[in-house]
Amino acid sequence: MTIYDSIGATYGSTRRPDPRIAARIHAALGDAATVINVGAGTGSYEPPQTVRAVEPSQVMIAQRPAGSAPALQSAAESIPINDNAADAVMALLTVHHWSDLEAGIAELRRIARRRIVILTWDQDVFRRQFWLVREYLPEAAAFDDTRAVPIDRLTALLGGARIEPVPVPHDCTDGFGAAYWRRPEAYLDPVVRAGISMLAQTGEDVIAPGLSRLEADLSSGRWHARHADLLDRDELDVGYRLLVADL
Predict the structure, then answer these.
(1) Is residue 7 within 8 Å of residue 197, measured between CB atoms?
(2) What pTM, to 2 d.p., does this model score?
(3) Cβ distance 130 to 181 under 8 Å?
(4) pLDDT digits (tens, 9 = 90+) for 131-190
(5) Rounded distance, CA 215 to CA 193, Å?
(6) Domains and CATH numbers, the chain
């Protein structure tokens, strides 16, 4: 059983791909004619040329839309796919869940012919730039400290990679951790929180006091006064990064 068998039930509704982020991912894949998506979840951001998805959670696989690429239930660390099976392999917001990062990256390098694209985040930037964890939920940041993968470590394992910032749009449709940076009231919604592994895995009891402070600051107008500089911004860099490695 994977963590997403217990926390992934709402991903099909709360984690809808954002077209602006999709454009960045698809551009990073370049002219790859075939793509394998590892840690595929419900299939967000899979381009039409995706030939296979690899996902350990049956709960997530069951939420993949009709017509998606065939899904193989398997962990990233041991993928039953032939060497050089696709032009490109992508792994989006997944490497922090892997039990053996080195084995997982080695598998990506084995099955990709030309390119690997990874979407992850820089924890130092995330902690510094994202008000939710900085001011209200340091416990969630501390949890992420235990699983976030340093960018330089990933780059080294990939044998080098181009690093591209992925700013988050203010109306992002994909409800990952910092998606609601300009819509703070969303974090008070338990359905939204259930789709954010950082919050779901930290635990409701742990984050309840911080959420109570956020609710009070929203009611009093204190949050809006403190973060007035965010209210007119269209996007924000909170540390999400694309790593593009050519083999």
Answers:
(1) yes
(2) 0.93
(3) yes
(4) 999 999 999 999 999 999 999 999 999 999 999 999 999 999 999 999 999 999 999 999
(5) 14
(6) 4-246 (3.40.50.150)
